[in-house]
Design goal:
The chain is an alpha+beta fold. The chain has 4 helices and 15 strands. It has one domain: Sandwich (Jelly Rolls). The strands form 3 sheets. Strands 1, 2, 3, 4, 5, 8, 11, 13 and 15 form a 9-stranded mixed β-sheet that branches. A 4-stranded antiparallel β-sheet has the order 6-12-9-10, with no helix packed on it.
């Protein structure tokens, strides 16, 4: 078993209350049995030191190229949120691996598929998308609302993970927050746009809005501080949110999203996010295609 930074969940579940369970990767690399158990129970874990400095430098090189290209600010794959009264902006972008070589290297040449895929206990692993999130200093009101990633996806299945790699030191006051065990309920909630002035085309209004967990005293909310190279990994159905950035420095992360062997294509009637649907996919079929390539198979 890996070296857990808390008691293993099968021995002391209450020890994880309030704090995301954290583990060190095992050789392989792989997550390890304690990490898998915590992921299944809580819907989220933190893998400490998942990426070393060399790979973080590759990601930073990709960010420099991204800014140098100055992509269209209104592109659905590059969103800039600027709010009145804030000193900084919140930018997020997707599908960068298709045009920027550093991001492609991280996905196809690093240990990421082996490490993160081990949590899913899957025979095969597909890339779904990459996702860069940068909250500049002073974007105090750029709050990421409570949501489920799964709400936005053209996918069905349970083996879908978001692997959120910290690029900066992130104290608890600006860290992500998760509702413990919320991936187990079965409910898929309505999408909410990260830019409150926008809405997704064809939003599935028959789905309920996510509850206001900030005002729910019964909710078990987990969070943790992070250092560069640490990675949060959560299930696509786990409900989470994040505060704005009140720090005097950047808060950035690269998210890699993977799908396992029970995942099939869903022709979601609303605009998906990321705004891509792959090539030639049929409802209920596996998702392997040019846009969602197969990374591992056994």
């Amino acid at each position: 078993m890996g070296r857990a930074l808390i008691a293993p969940v099968d021995k002391n579940i209450s020890a994880t209350r309030g704090t995301v369970a954290s583990f060190r990767p095992e050789p392989g690399p792989k997550a390890g049995g304690d990490a898998i158990a915590a992921y299944k129970h809580d819907g989220v874990i933190c893998l400490r030191g998942a990426f070393e400095r060399d790979w973080l430098d590759v990601i930073e090189a990709g960010i420099k190229l991204f800014y140098a290209e100055e992509p269209a600010r209104e592109s659905a794959k590059n969103v800039v949120v600027e709010r009145e009264g804030d000193d900084g902006s919140f930018r997020y972008a997707t599908m960068m691996w298709k045009t920027l070589e550093p991001f492609r290297r991280v996905i196809f040449e690093s240990h990421a598929p082996d490490l993160f895929g081990s949590l899913l206990e899957t025979r095969q692993l597909n890339l779904y998308y990459d996702f860069l999130l940068i909250k500049q200093p002073g974007c105090r009101s750029a709050v990421t609302p409570w949501h489920q990633d799964h709400s936005y996806y053209c996918l069905n299945g349970t083996k879908i993970i978001n692997c959120w790699i910290a690029l900066d030191t992130i104290p608890t006051e600006t860290a992500l927050r998760f509702v413990q065990g919320s991936h187990l309920g079965g409910q898929i909630y309505r999408t909410v746009h990260f830019d409150p002035s926008k809405q997704y085309a064809g939003t599935m209004t028959e789905r309920p809005l996510p509850p206001d967990f900030d005002n729910d005293p019964e909710a078990e909310i987990l969070s943790c501080a992070m250092e560069p190279g640490d990675a949060l990994v959560w299930n696509s159905r786990t409900i989470h949110s994040a505060p704005g950035n009140r720090l005097n420095r950047r808060r950035a992360a690269l998210s890699l999203n993977f799908a396992g062997d029970d995942v099939t294509y869903f022709g979601i009637p609303q605009e998906p996010d990321p705004p891509v649907r792959g090539e030639g996919l049929v409802e209920g079929d596996p998702i392997t295609c040019e846009t969602f390539p197969l990374l591992r198979s056994s």
